[in-house]
Amino acid sequence: MESFPALALAVLVILSYANSIVIVRASDSDPLQDICVADLKSEVIVNGFPCKNAMMVTANDFRLSGLDKPGNTNNQLGFVVTPAFVMQLPGLNTLGISMVRLDYAAPLGLNPPHTHPRATEILVVIEGTLLVGFINTNNTLFSTTLEKGDVFVFPRGLVHFQQNIGGVNAVAIASLNSQNPGTQQVAPALFGASPPVSASVLARAFQIDDKLVQILQHKFTSS
Hints:
The protein has 223 residues and is of the alpha+beta class. Helices cover 22% and strands 26% of the residues. It has four helices and ten strands; from the N terminus they run H-E-E-E-E-E-E-E-E-E-E-H-H-H. A hairpin with a 5-residue loop joins strand 5 and strand 6 (141-146). Helix 3 (199-206) crosses helix 4 (210-222). The chain starts with a helix and ends with a helix.
């Protein structure tokens, strides 16, 4: 029979290994070389993008212009995202970071409730006034008003939103700890899925009737 110290040591090793697995999965994988510029034209399927031939890499692979220009907010939400993800900036591949410019029309431009399944987001207001918030897994809302220069963090995977509550157009810049953080808007995901989620499932979940579910599904699938 093994001694207690030996068993204790084995348990500690297992727990340490399990903890390391959790850490590895907490964000994009660490790079194994200095750079791995994404080869966006490659037909090879990997988790991320294969590396471009190092001899073909240039400084332009690490440069993106245009975040100084306002996005077009002429839409139903009065809001638009200008991304700097790996698809726009191939040099981000394997580096575990990206950013976006967010434009909100006045009044009430809205970045609707959504999640980023692969990233935490940190946002700074460049211009205007935003109402922001996120909801944790206990359904507690953490919400506040941000002015120019204020910073707010949205934890990874939690539902969050921003809305322009000022009298002028608002602008924010956000950084995310993934080259491709993903975005899933709550309402379109539930009511605009293809094929559609069963109306009876949504009616029971939201405590509404099937007819209203069908109206919402039509709205989000036709927009």
